[in-house]
Amino acid sequence: MPCRDILNEISPSALAAELSASAILINYWTKAVNNAVWMMLMLAVVVGLNFAPAHFYGEFEFWFASIKLVTILCLRILGIVLDLGGGPMHDRIGFRYWKNPGPFIEFLGIQGTAGRFLGFWPALIQATVSCVGTEITAITAGEAKNPKKALPSAIRKVTIRIWVFYILGTFVIGLIMQSNEPRLNLNSHDAASSPFVIAISNSGIKILPS
């Protein structure tokens, strides 16, 4: 891919978010190195892959996407297993956390309905940002050989992916993680605040969180 096409193919905001996420993930194991170092290394990898021949770029894209897909699906399955009591402690959670403490908690100590709404609102904004980009499917109609046939199929597949990767993931997290868990800290600078990491630790599985 020519250098001039890099910014056209990669959203700058999405790239920045991914670079930050990579540094946060590495911080789970070590904080001895400044995050800027990890981010620059990851940026070098991204730029290098974009300069690589098309078949190398496609090969790396395939394997990286496959690893991500398998990881996401495994976490969903693991979450359901833990919820049904399949962990070492055999604690069947079920819908316990939907009742106590419930899905909504008061934000910044603001009491009552207003506090619960203010807790819901930033979560809604973050969820909306995560779904940004699905409209690009319609833009590709200009490059499709048969858009009348290809576009409806692509849109249906995007909808299925949203249900499987986002909505199902949120549902599973709601099952295995209580909303008032103190380790769910948005200001944390490593992956220890991940609901899946916390749930795995709570279940008594020692090897997976690391």
TrEMBL record:
Under the GO molecular function aspect, what terms does this record hold? amino acid transmembrane transporter activity
- State the compartments where it is located: Membrane
Q: Where is the Amino acid permease/ SLC12A domain?
A: 14-209
Q: Does the keyword Transmembrane apply?
A: yes
GO terms for cellular component: membrane
A Pfam match is AA_permease
Q: Which UniProt keywords apply?
A: Membrane, Transmembrane, Transmembrane helix
Q: Does the keyword GTP-binding apply?
A: no
Please report the record's description of how this protein sits within the membrane: Multi-pass membrane protein
Per the annotation, which location comes first and is thus the protein's main one? membrane
**TM annotation in the entry:** 36-56, 62-82, 158-177
What is the name attached to this protein's record?
Answer: Amino acid permease/ SLC12A domain-containing protein
> To which species is this protein native?
Cronartium quercuum f. sp. fusiforme G11
